[in-house]
Amino acid sequence: MNILERDPSDPQKQKKEGVNPLLKLVLELGPLLVFFFANARGQWLVQKFPALGELGGPIFVATGLFMAATALALIASWLLTRTLPMMPLVSGIVVLIFGALTLYLQDDIFIKMKPTIVNTLFGGVLLGGLFFGKSLLGYVFDSAFSLDAEGWRKLTFRWGLFFLFLALVNEVVWRNFSTDAWVTFKVWGIMPITLLFTFSQMPLIMRHSLEEKTKEENAGK
Prior knowledge:
Shape: elongated
Helix content: over 70%
Distance between the termini: 44 Å
Number of helices: 12
Radius of gyration: 19 Å
Number of strands: 0
Largest sheet: none
Oligomer: single chain
Number of domains: 2
């Protein structure tokens, strides 16, 4: 049994690992929304559930619930597909490690550094994979796009740089703004930036789409 998601070239991947895109989005964004809500309504949550007060102030309550929601999202993914998606798994491990440090030491610097660590790791892995001739972005987008080798290389390179950019932005925000501002930006700023970047890559995707090339070839016959 494969615990991790299959290699993009594995013909069994599409058959056994499909998941509704909307549900996948909920599993990935759900923990972030829990984090934002818990930070914004931390005192209210403590009043409703006094046990949460043992965690500390709002950011620590949010961290604890973020860890729980992340673990539940990974469990749900496993129950639905019997595999664990690579990037959410790596992110989840970092959340649990840095979240535990945040709660144990009562220092929010660790949870604030988590996006920096994760994005630097992702960017480094993607760019490092290219150095060894591997376009690893297929683990993320292979179910959505079918590209030629050059297209995957270009897209992987761009996403590698984008992840490093996100890491830099996170450092700037958490070091120069309040915790509430950082949480708000993490939830409501990063997603629009990521969506804009994703849409900006559509011309490249269309140029290197195998499906588009097949349609053009069929039209020419």
